[in-house]
């Protein structure tokens, strides 16, 4: 009985961390120009989520692979180091095929959820449970779509705010590099570019009050679509959601998004095997 209670307690804590971590990831990406306006607001915890599945038009690719991750490190009670890792790794195939794995790790606990969406059909798998066929409106699927940063979002790495960022960043000096097997222009903003950072982040408060803010963006030389986005900093003020996760200030964070396999014909999103 005690073992079962520990498992239930872990699952509850892991679920709370997954939701909180996902909201943090969405908030960070939204502040980077990935989304804008009311559409970017995540569903409140406890509210019934809704999901609208549309194909992404923000990246001019018919197929691609992506990984979006947020790592936050701090000191838990007693001074022991603690780390929250949230990631979404997925594939997109035009016009409406999405498959992704959502991973949350807090300390030694890990929760993994998987979703495949093809048109109006969906498949969902939690942890080591089997796949089940459902729809995007399924409560578990919709909740995950509200917290995970995925290609299901119509403004995935795009939208008006990102277009403004891209137009501005193209005026900065750059170096050409191969990133994710793609030739890209690397734009880097250091301490001297903080004013520029704030111009599209909407002020430091958009990412809480941070120190050591660094930002890099790689845009494909062919099409200027985002190949990699990398941001890092240190939260210097206490934030309630971070304290609840055992990550009191100062909390260091790194946001990284990679897009790869552009228009790879071998990339295919297919229904999983349902036993």
Give a quick precis of the structure.
This protein is of the alpha+beta class and 275 residues long.
What would you note in describing this structure?
The protein is 23% helix and 36% strand. An 11-stranded antiparallel β-sheet has the order 6-5-4-3-2-1-11-10-9-8-7. The protein has 5 helices and 11 strands, in the order H-E-E-E-E-E-E-H-H-E-E-H-E-E-H-E. The chain has helices at 2-31, 139-147, 160-169, 194-201, 240-244, and strands spanning 63-75, 81-93, 97-106, 109-118, 121-126, 132-134, 175-179, 182-189, 210-220, 226-235, 251-260. The chain is flat and about 45 Å long. Strand 1 and strand 2 form a beta hairpin. The chain is an alpha+beta fold and 275 residues long.
State the order of secondary-structure elements, H for helix, E for strand: HEEEEEEHHEEHEEHE
Q: Count helical runs.
A: 5
Overall mean pLDDT:
75
What does the main sheet amount to?
11 strands, antiparallel
What descriptors fit this protein?
275 residues; alpha+beta; 11-stranded antiparallel beta sheet; 5 helices; disordered N terminus
